[in-house]
Design goal:
Elements: E1 5-9, E2 21-28, H1 31-40, E3 46-49, E4 55-56, E5 61-68, E6 73-78, E7 82-88, H2 93-102, E8 127-128, E9 131-132, E10 137-144, E11 149-154, E12 175-185, H3 197-204, H4 211-225, E13 233-237, E14 243-244, H5 246-255, E15 262-264, E16 267-269, H6 272-278, E17 285-286, E18 289-291, E19 298-301, H7 307-325, E20 334-335
Parallel strand pairs: 2-5, 3-5, 4-20
Antiparallel strand pairs: 1-2, 6-7, 7-12, 8-9, 10-11, 10-12, 13-19, 14-16, 15-16, 17-18, 18-19
Bound molecules: flavin-adenine dinucleotide.
Flavin-adenine dinucleotide binds at residues 15, 47-55, 68, 89, 114-117, 119-121, 123-124, 126-128, 175-177, 226, 229, 234-236, 334.
């Protein structure tokens, strides 16, 4: 049977680098491995992880932690306009982006350099620079951990929304995602209206607009703005941008007229980074944790933080923001 390790140190399996242990740990690179492990550990709690870049462990993990290592990128069909690409859940997300970029297929170039594995991308419907996974997503295959059956799940059944999906809500913890299929565009439609992409492209002076130019611009912006988890532990944005109804927005705007906002359907999205900064958290350090100096949405581990210390700090931010703005921040990072 695939090797299973007991009392396993997960420090290097989460990008916060918090030191917790798994009761049992293993990885699977094929469906056969997963079937074997799931039957052997039938009664144990199972947690599937990828690159550990969107989770915070606040305590040791009971049961079996399984890292998905199913690899492979395959073109499954194509026509004049589109190509359908299937990728194993254990492929590093940015490798898939580079695969598309090298073929000049459009759709995921704005999602360049998001850490983690392909299998986690649908969990929170990853998004950046005006693009979300759901814009190109077709379907996925997932193993139901209790029923021990493979399910094919189409886009509509994934219930994608802003940093959410059915896998973060009613189907939470029930599946091991095995692979996903994306529809990429042979005639790319460029999306450079968001954030600093346009400005970065001008600075880079890349000439003709291309999938690669956009990917390069996004990579440069991200590298200049976000802390590298290999250097300073973090899991990217810790909170979602709150979406509030128009009436509540008008009330709070009376008190804070300078509050930035964006339309989100019939509601209003408020940048969480602004709210946190207004509460004085930007760049502050509390013990071993704090808010990153360039981006207060990112909580960091200065070296020796425990998961519960980071969690407590996030609680303090939520409370302070609520008291000042009557807006409740929701965590984007998965807490275990
Ligand atoms: C510096 C930095 C920048 C980031 N920027 C962005 C960004 O711009 N946009 C964005 O959306 N996210 C961003 N993130 C968050 C993160 O990169 C993504 O959410 C990513 O998809 C997580 O992938 P992972 O493999 O590391 O998942 P993990 O952290 O390992 O897991 C995340 C969740 O998915 C579940 N899961 C993982 N794999 C599977 C699977 N195969 N089957 C079932 N469940 C699974 C886990 O149980 C967990 O609940 C950033 C993170 C960092 C550190």
């Amino acid at each position: 049977m695939t090797k299973v390790l007991e009392d396993f140190d997960l420090t290097s399996y989460n990008t916060f680098h918090v030191p917790v242990r798994a009761e049992y740990f293993s990885s699977f690179g094929s469906m056969d491995d997963l079937l074997e492990l799931s039957s052997h550990f039938g009664n144990h709690q199972k947690l599937i992880i990828g690159g550990g870049s969107n989770l915070l462990f606040t305590k040791d993990v009971g049961g079996l932690v399984l890292q998905n290592k199913i690899r492979g990128i395959e073109i499954i069909s194509e026509d004049e306009n589109f190509v359908f690409v299937n990728a194993g859940a254990g492929v590093v997300w940015h490798e898939l982006v580079l695969f598309a970029v090298n073929h000049q297929w459009g759709g995921i170039e704005n999602l360049s350099l998001i850490p983690g594995f392909v299998g986690a991308a649908p969990i929170q419907n990853i998004g950046a620079y005006g693009v979300e996974l759901c814009n190109v997503f077709e379907e996925l295959e997932a193993f139901h951990l209790k029923d021990r059956e493979i399910h094919k799940i189409k886009k509509d059944d994934c219930e994608f929304g802003y940093r959410k999906s059915v896998f973060k809500n009613k189907s939470k913890g029930q599946y091991a995602i095995l692979n996903i299929t994306l529809r990429l565009n042979k005639k790319p439609v460029f999306n450079i209206g968001y954030g600093a992409i346009q400005k970065q492209l001008e600075q880079m002076n890349t000439g003709e607009l291309s999938v690669k130019a956009i990917s390069d611009a996004v990579i440069q912006i991200r590298q200049s703005k976000l802390p590298d988890p290999a250097v300073i532990g973090n899991a990217g944005s810790f909170f979602k941008n709150p979406i509030i109804d128009f009436e509540s927005f008008q009330e709070v705007k009376k008190i804070f007229p300078e509050m930035p906002s964006y339309p989100a359907g019939e509601k209003i999205k408020v940048p969480a980074a602004w709210l946190i900064e207004q509460c004085g958290f930007k760049g502050i350090r509390v013990g071993n944790t704090g808010c990153y100096k360039n981006q207060p949405l990112v909580l960091v581990n200065y070296g020796n933080a425990t998961g519960s210390e980071i969690f407590e700090f996030s609680e303090r931010i939520i409370q302070t923001v609520r008291e000042k703005f009557q807006i409740t921040l929701e965590r984007e990072v998965n807490i275990f």
